[in-house]
Amino acid sequence: MWKIKDVEIEHQIVLAPMAGITNLAYRKLVKEFGAGLVVSEMVSDKALCYGNQKTIDMLKVDEDEHPISIQIFGGEVESMVKAAKFVEENSDCDIIDINMGCPVNKVLKAHAGSDLLRDPERAYNIVKAVVEAVNIPVTVKMRIGFDKEHINCVEFAKMMEKAGASALAVHGRTRSQFYEGQADWSYIKQVKDAVNIPVMGNGDVRTPEDAKRMLEETGCDAVMVGRAVLGNPWLIQRMIDYLETGEDRGDPDYHQKFALCKDHAKRLVAQMGERNAMREMRGHAPWYIKGLHSSAHIKNALTKIETYKELEDILQEYETYLLEYEKKES
To answer: pTM of the full predicted structure?
Structure first.
């Protein structure tokens, strides 16, 4: 058990915010595998200020998700304060997270995301104002710096703590790396040693062994996992078990993977209707069959699905093929 201010969190594995991924349906799915904290996909402050209904719908929280953090992004104090107040009043979330790590140009042009790493004073003012405006904890997700010539995570983290942030999530890459190269965990350790608030370590955590090593090498309070759980939400449970018992139950078989893929699709249908759900599953479904025998043409078919029945039929046909393949190999 660890805490972000007064929010108690049972496990040390946290689901990272991922744009277009960590919506309500996916968060609930991951929560069922034991994630201590789940974080929403990032929400635009300006869109909330303008009353965009699609964005407002992203604030929906299920009673089974707690504790949950809603992540917002923006580059101006006034709009970020207004958005944070709106989130607190219109969402049942436990924490508000401020994105200072997104590397995408569109976000940087709004002086948001990792662009704030280049303007610590602006970042400080945003966090301080948001903390003073809401009653729930405010956290910051950041990178170690904008590029390798400007790694300023320790000084930046101290400023965020001084501004009132209740916790930090540190991705061990610079903005210029995007998601390439290797995450440098030594900077996560430096941040942890420099502040007195909880720190979540993020970057290159792909296995239960990685999660344990992150905790041991950096001294961080929790591990934030992102891309490794795509099509692989049971990794969360594997990590928790490994931290608690030293045992790894390993990956499920393909029968379980297909069943979970269909369950994920059904949840999305219930949340957003079949048409939109299947468009989203075009991205998710191929992850569920990653690494399986002769999956290339199946992945291609899954990227074109229009209905839930199409998804079901493709998976059923592929499952039959894999069963026959196993018999031949044995």
So the answer is: 0.95
